[in-house]
Design brief:
GO terms for molecular function: hydrolase activity. This is Heat shock protein HslJ/phosphoglycolate phosphatase-like HAD superfamily hydrolase. Keywords: Hydrolase, Signal, Stress response. The protein is globular. It has 17 helices and 18 strands. The protein is an alpha/beta fold. It has two domains: about 270 residues, HAD superfamily/HAD-like (Rossmann fold), CATH 3.40.50; about 110 residues, Lipocalin, CATH 2.40.128. The strands form three sheets. Strands 10, 11, 12, 13, 14, 15, 16, 17 and 18 form a nine-stranded antiparallel beta sheet that branches. About 5% of the residues have low confidence.
Amino acid sequence: MKKRVKMLVVLSLTIIGMMAMTLSSVAADHLPSWNEGATKRAIIEFVENVTEEGSPGFVPPSERIAVFDNDGTLWSEAPLPFQAAFAFDEVKRRVPTEPALAADPMVKAMLDGDIGKLLEGKHHDGLMRILALTHAGMTTDEFDRRVNQWAESASHPRFKRPYLELTYQPMQELLDYLRSHQFECFIVSGGGADFMRVWSERVYEIPPQNVVGSTAQVRYEMRDGKPVLIKTLDQLFVDDKEGKPVGIHQFIGRRPIACFGNSDGDQAMLEYTTIGNPHPSFGLIVHHTDAEREYAYDEKPPASGKLTTALEAAAARGWTVVDMKRDWNQIWSNPDAASNADDPRGLFGKWLAEDIAGKGVLDRAQSTLEIEPDGAVGGSTSVNRYRGQATIDGNAISFGPLITTRRAGPPAMMEQESRFTEAFSRVTSFRIDEHDLLYLTDGDGNDVLRFSRLGE
């Protein structure tokens, strides 16, 4: 009897021990939104190596500097970087009462929807011009107020959530994990430093002084007996590409040992962090591969975020590449964001084409689209009638072969018909923006068709 009791006690203690180990393992998972695999292991192994005393790679806490790009790394950057969305809204607000602003060539390009023009140049020069025009001439306090007002009222065109809620949960967990191991985390971004400093602390728990971004000179004045700083267009510093290591040196003063980015614009920062560093170092690239839950792009991004040379260099440099679709079991820090993606019911009805592959449409040649709840599609190419079938799943949509009548028309209208019908074959997803415009996009995130809704 005593032997049996002893065996039961041993067995009970063993079970309790196993349960404690299991609970400890669960509790120790600081990265629950990261799927188990090589990417998650690489992060944990690096952190353990540099933070465990006695480890050959131990780095003192004062030298544990981690730098993060923002757009496309900590939150989404599609279909436009969120600061660009703010600037565009500012332009639309101010143009009616500011003729000089409306006359600027880059403002005209923005109002015409010519995003390609704004993205030309080494640092997307047209876009930088828009940012400068809409940010300069006001006090820093007034700028802060405008950013906060915009953030409270504006929402993402696809996910229908406030922009500040569209941060990546896996990266939020990573920030917390690093801070719990005495890393000091900084944002180093091509975005405007003043724009990010308004909300960085409440969104990421990164204080304003830990934000390094693009800047222009401010001017000191006394107004109504009070000191103010005025934003200007002078001495613009673009914290992108080779500018990022420069910004790190000027504003942080210590070489990072961990760097996180998502584009070729982060390559120099990744190189500066990981090549010739006297400490163990870590580089990570977020590769956008999930069109269903977020966006999929690399070589052909919707706007910013091109990823080619950095991706090619990753293997040779030992950088870890996150496959968003494979490595993340949750995308958004706000789980409601996914449920607010485009409702397919918004598609149903009649639409008028306003643009085909960025080349516009003929003024008096109406190309139309009608989508029924069962996926049946039809309309006019501007010369012929057509019909077909679409497959719709969430915000994903694809079109089967279109059957058309065979009438002939003027050459210009026939050319538009050809572009119109060909564009449908490339469509993989849709979005409806805040102005009720329908965009059909291809697998690279490019808009191939834009429609306005037709009244019944």
